[in-house]
Amino acid sequence: AAGTVIAVDGPAAAGKTTTCLALANTFGLRYLESGRTYRIIAFEALRREIPVDDTREITGLCDELLMESRTESLLTAERYASDKLRETPVNVAVSAVAKIAEVRQRVTGLIRLWAKTQAQCVVEGRDIGTAVFPAARVKFYLTASPEVRAMRRVRQERADSYENVLADVIRRDEADMNRAASPLVAAEDAIRIDTTRLTIDQVTSRMASACRNQG
Ligand code: C5P
């Protein structure tokens, strides 16, 4: 099944979600946003007042959530409103949760199972091309300057100030790149696209033609 995966990784707010959705539309692929699952775990930890750096407790929470969500996978659970998962406390907690190897192992397992049931899919995250699907058919690594990424996020969400969003983006990148368990890094065979001076349409069409060429 891994042969049918398009993997898209990169730092926060690099344009992964928007371009992945466009690709999914163009090629009729299923789309998975893996960050959502890490966010759900962080959200539940906050709600239940479990310290996010307590490996044992968070791993236990993870197992509990996996058991509870038999009918609705944690990957796609719609009962979690996206705006709730994007609030500041979750943004802060999610990198701590995502650092935990036991959590990553479980989420990785979920993603692989899901992908097996899909004919073709595009999966976005931080470790998709490196750890989850090292044999993905096509891999992309999207980047942009932190300032441009923060600016785009502010325009898109209109919820927080530029300074706060920039600080969050930088802090999360630091945490994601420097953790021991599957840190954020471009896979050697990933197609790197710096989107700083590109429009979404330009990025999407580059990605689409790379997919056609490597299909
Ligand atoms: O993609 P998004 O910004 O929603 O991801 C939220 C957080 O989830 C990231 O900052 C990262 O800590 C974690 N994550 C991860 N591995 C993935 C996807 C997300 O560690 N594959």
Automatic annotation (TrEMBL):
Class of this enzyme: transferase
What keywords are annotated for this sequence in UniProt? ATP-binding, Cytoplasm, Kinase, Nucleotide-binding, Transferase
Catalysed reaction(s)?
dCMP + ATP = dCDP + ADP; CMP + ATP = CDP + ADP
Q: Name one GO molecular function term.
A: dCMP kinase activity
Q: Where are the transmembrane segments?
A: none
Q: Give the UniProt record's GO annotations in the biological process aspect.
A: pyrimidine nucleotide metabolic process
Look up the EC number in the record and give it: 2.7.4.25
What are the subcellular locations of this protein? Cytoplasm
Cytoplasm listed as a keyword:
yes
Record bears the keyword Cell wall biogenesis/degradation: no
Q: Which InterPro entries match?
A: Cytidylate_kin (IPR003136), Cytidylate_kinase_dom (IPR011994), P-loop_NTPase (IPR027417)
| Residues annotated to bind ATP | G10, P11, A12, A13, A14, G15, K16, T17, T18
Coiled-coil zones: none
Question: What HAMAP family does this protein's entry cite?
Answer: Cytidyl_kinase_type1
Tell me what this protein is called.
Answer: Cytidylate kinase
Q: Which organism is it from?
A: Amycolatopsis regifaucium
Encoding gene (name): cmk
